[in-house]
Amino acid sequence: MNFDDTPQEAEFRANARAWIAANAPRQYEDELRKSSLGRTQLKNANILEVAKAWQKKKADAGWACLHWPKDYGGRGASPIERVIWQQEEGPFGKLSGMFIIGHGMCGPTMMAFAREEHKRTYLPPLASGEKVWCQLFSEPAGGSDVAGLRTRAEKDGDDWVINGQKIWTSGAHYSDYGILLTRTDPNVPKHKGLTMFFLDMKSPGVEVRPIKQASGASDFNEVYFTNVRIPDHHRLGEVNDGWNVSLTTLMNERMSIGAGVPTGFPELFDYCSSLMLDDGPAIENRAVRSKLANWAVKASGLRYTSMRAISALSKGERPGPENSIGKLVAGSMIQDVATYALDLQGAVGVVSGPEDAEVAGRFQAMLLRAPGTRVEGGTDEIMRNIIAERVLGLPGDIRVDKDVPFNKISTKGRS
Amino acid sequence: MNFDFSDDQKQLRDQARKFLTEKCSPKAVRVVLDGKAPYDKELWKGLAEMGFLGVAIPEEFGGAGAGHLELCVIAEEMGRANAAVPFSSTVYLAAEALLIAGSDAQKKKWLPAIASGEAIGTLALFEGKGNPSPKNIKLAASNGVLSGVKKPVADGAIANFAVVAARTGTGGRDSDISLFLVDLKAGGVEVKSLTNLDPTRGQAELTFKDCKAEPLGAAGEGWSILTQVLDRAAVLCAFEQVGGADRALEMGRDYALDRIAFGRQIGSFQAVKHMLADMYVSATLARSNSYYGAWALSTNAAELPEAAAAARISATQAFQHCAKNNIQVHGGMGFTWEFDCHMYYRRANAMALGLGSLSYWEDQLIDRMRKKNAA
């Protein structure tokens, strides 16, 4: 058990550090450091443009998608090297947000299921951030129950014709490509009639409508498909085997560990360290300290759990669903942390405008964004099911629609 | 970086588990639980023969000279088995205090006796209500003679010797505290057993009446030594707690798979599944925090004070959480004497207090994090 770099790792770290020092967009460092969940933006620049420029620069120098093969725009680096890079990249890593889905889910799915020529064409610009990808799985009728999706794909000559609607698609409004899960056979039980494709988001018939979230911001979209044509060679995996393909995507989501899910703890500890309450410094208040200590051990527990997973990964072991605890713990924690920060502010905690609010309203922004983290990428409840079933081996939920042809499943809650 | 135990250490864990499964069944623990023996003497002898008591004691003092990572591995198994032996008092507290502050003669006298299972040791720190603090130590030492009362003292009724915290100065400052080594069989100490939450680990009140004692470490250094001992014991206890939490989770899981109600396995109900998933989450967080503590302990890293406090809090919470919800999963049967659930519940809640309560360690953690940030 040790945290020391091997000589090779130390060399890698030194190279990464030197390159970052010479090339990172330092003018945004302070702003990025202060940004947190619900508020990652730059005052005098478009963060998407800054992010794309940084990603391209990294790719040109061989620092993008480190764990991907070189042929596909990566570096062929080890899991540990990837973690070292993340440690060194520090606040500039927050610029990777818009690429997480493409790099973490779409890319690995393409790698596993696309034709070789497509991998060579599409993966390098995905790695370099020149092309942004999104993932089109969720639908109004299929969120947690994603296999309940209704978007149809029908064969027409060498093409497939797509009709239907997706929802909660992160970044669809700035995406160039997407991976799309569709229903190709409604006459068989729901998991058995799905097929996966990738598509050009600029295809005729694709319409993206931003969703105004409860927080007021718009990170997600509805995407409508009207007679969108996709060539058959853009199919990923076999016809009607889309469920298994999507499991690969989700498995890779779990492999993309290390970056860490935000907990809000560093922000809160920092805030409490300088905050004065009516009866003295917050950090010396017994009740505040108790709250902080409880969150501190959750945050450190997550950090070290992720290190254990990286150690396993570097030994060639596949990290399992136990990594689901990260999102489960951090999601509700950041919500509680934000709520508590406002409680400490008293009446003025209600003020959320960055100019007038305490610490530029970072905890207000966090509070309003937090409900989404407990839903996106698997709700807290789905995460608990995953842990219970796949880690602890408890029985699956009783599924009344399991053996029913998809088009015979009841769709009405109350008639 | 390799944030995991080595293959040899994992092998040692398997060996310890196999040994304890055989020699430390719930039935064996129940002999002590039911008051028929003060501790499991057979098991204690076996632990000595396996080399587990002296695993972190250097070879020159009769130990195996392996190290603290090896001790962590064994601690986890001791917690898992809910062993009814004075392991934590003797090995984490008394032996660690001797290793940190003992003279060569003191180490030669006691450490080989610990490793061979002949001597049981303990730490006499608390004096009634309150957490570890120099202000709470009233037992006085003058001219090598101790007078005062310690309560509770873990395994005090069966210990051969104790490390005793005594006041040698007049104020309540750190430098007013010194440590002493007392041979409990040499007279001058009255021992009274105390009924406690966890009968599988005894607690006692020790009354020192002009009791002869020899200094352990330099005069006025007692508090600084104690702080180190408590930090080291916090990590080792955390591993016991992690082992206990895992076992409680496993018991709950197994019962949820076996028990049928409403025509289904109760583990198919989401209310039960999610409760068990939450137990898994807290046990996993505790394990990860404890691993970090193990690293800090084994390398004597500057991070040890913070890592120890985090491991202590996380593991205490996890064991309490898993032990209480294990009973809940079991329903009424979990609340019977006959089922083993309450043994873990008792142990979890007793261990939560042993080195100072949760709120004490929360306070410690924040102090230590502030110190690190200031540095």
What does this entry show, briefly?
The complex is a heterodimer of chains A (415) and B (375). Chain A has 415 residues and is of the alpha+beta class. Chain A contains twelve helices and ten strands.
Compile the SSE list and pairings:
The complex is a heterodimer of chains A (415) and B (375).
Chain A (H helix, E strand, L loop, with lengths): L6 H17 L5 H6 L12 H14 L18 H11 L10 H14 L2 H12 L5 E4 L15 E5 L2 E9 L9 E7 L10 E7 L5 E5 L10 E11 L3 E2 L5 H14 L9 H10 L1 E2 L2 E2 L4 H29 L10 H21 L16 H12 L6 H12 L24
Parallel strand pairs in A: 1-4
Antiparallel strand pairs in A: 2-3, 3-7, 4-5, 5-8, 6-7, 9-10
Chain B lengths: L6 H17 L2 H8 L7 H9 L18 H14 L5 H15 L2 H12 L5 E4 L15 E3 L2 E10 L6 E7 L9 E7 L5 E6 L8 E10 L1 E3 L5 H37 L1 E2 L2 E2 L4 H30 L4 H27 L10 H14 L3 H17 L1
Parallel strand pairs in B: 1-4
Antiparallel strand pairs in B: 2-3, 3-7, 4-5, 5-8, 6-7, 9-10
Helix pairs in contact in B: 1-4, 4-7, 5-6, 5-7, 7-8, 7-9, 7-10, 8-9, 9-10, 9-11
Fill in the keyword field for this structure.
heterodimer, A: about 425 residues, alpha+beta, Butyryl-Coa Dehydrogenase, subunit A, domain 1, Butyryl-CoA Dehydrogenase, subunit A, domain 2, Butyryl-CoA Dehydrogenase, subunit A, domain 3, four-stranded antiparallel β-sheet, 10 strands, B: about 375 residues, four-stranded mixed β-sheet, 11 helices, about 15% strand, globular, flavin adenine dinucleotide binding (chain B), flavoprotein (chain B), AcylCoA_DH/oxidase_NM_dom_sf (chain B)
